[in-house]
Amino acid sequence: MNKSKKNTQGKTRMSVYLSIVVPMYNEQDSVEKLLSGLLEVGKQFDFPYEIIFVDDGSEDKTWDSIERLKKKNPELRAIKLRRNYGQTSAMVAGFEHASGEIIVTMDGDLQNDPSDIPTLLQKIREGYDVASGWRINRRDDRVRVLPSRVANSIISWTTGVRLHDYGCSLKAYRAECIKSVEAYGEMHRFFPALARMTGARVTEVPVKHHPREYGVSKYGLDRILKVLSDIFAVNLIIRFCSNPLKGFVLCAIPFILLSLFFGSLGVLALIFQWTPGKALFFMISSALTGMAGVHLVALGVLGELVVGTSDLRHTRLPAITKRTIFVNEEEDKSQRERAKRSISRRVIAPSSSRRSGIVSQGRSRRTK
Ligand code: UDP
Ligand code: MG
């Protein structure tokens, strides 16, 4: 935890242990209060940490406030996205710039409480890779809470990762776990389920929740549809990402059975000379359903080719899934060093930030 590194000027600085990533979209009135809450909690930490505010293309004075606060607070780093990309992309941009071994995410609207961070960190120290907040006493209106409960049950049931509150942004991750997740769209709420694919151990921690003090929620009821389509997409990824042919063959089986059924009826109609129209009808139905089955299998084969040649990060598992026990301690050390280097290479060469045109402030002034 207390490791040190030499920077380009040859000065020694402590490695960051914790990165707190906060996406913000039009949260000008919350920025300062949130930072002071985080700095207050930071006083308890006996390790170096950084706070990364990601301005997700705000149209208000959020970035001005961040820039002003950045001058006075060395712990604060900031990233500005050129336009509003959404909460998931803002978080991913934060992950790519985070240098801590542990990453904590939270909302920037003061609904999450920074005082819960030590409890989450404690769970990670106990050996979990993901500690997910559970807003037991949720302070949002019922119209929001009810669909969210239904979504939590569906996600838990379909992904097998049983959590009461997928929607809570306050979560702690071992960095290597979350950096190996390829997220897009609105997938931030599925991070625990996706991280589980890489072998992560997930737990849930009760946390506080406050009503929104300033500004407005960035989501309306259309979120229900988005979450439902994401549930479908995430389940596809979890179940079939490494073996798409299996999924397509499963879908093709009913069509092939139907085709055989209609085909047999067609043959019977010919043998026993049922009305001529019937035989034709059965033969055409058999051909159509058979073609649907064959197309699905062909799509599965294409899917296999795509997966085989694509950059699916889940196929490159992070070091947590590959712990090895060595008799020789030196060998063990060099293995761990190699794993760390491969992770940092992935952080230095991010893909989505290059695509999204990030402007960053703070230590890693990479993209302009
Ligand atoms: N947010 C963001 N980009 C967006 C939408 C939201 O960075 O496009 C941030 C927002 O500023 C807040 C967090 O994500 O810090 C959660 O958003 P919000 O509070 O609106 O969600 P809710 O609490 O209503 O679920
Ligand atoms: Mg909120």
Q: What structural category arises from helix and sheet content? A: alpha/beta
What small molecules does the structure contain?
Answer: uridine-5'-diphosphate, magnesium ion
The total strand number stands at 10
CATH class of the largest domain: Alpha Beta
How many domains? 3
CA(first)-CA(last) distance? 32 Å
> SSE order in H/E notation?
EEEHEHEHEHEHEHHEHHHHHE
The CATH architecture assignment of the largest domain turns out to be Alpha-Beta Complex
Rounded mean pLDDT score: 85
Write up what this structure looks like.
By secondary structure, the protein is an alpha/beta fold. The protein is built from twelve helices and ten strands. It folds into three domains: 2-240, Spore Coat Polysaccharide Biosynthesis Protein SpsA, Chain A; 244-311; 323-367, no CATH class. The strands form two sheets. It has an eight-stranded mixed beta sheet with strand order 9-7-8-6-3-4-5-10, sandwiched between helices. It has a two-stranded antiparallel sheet with strand order 1-2. α5 packs parallel to α8 (222-240). It is elongated. It starts with a strand and ends in a 7-residue tail after the last strand. Bound molecules: uridine-5'-diphosphate and magnesium ion. Magnesium ion (MG) binds at residues 107, 109, 111, 212, 217. Uridine-5'-diphosphate binds at residues 23-25, 27, 56, 84, 86-87, 90, 107-109, 111, 217-219.
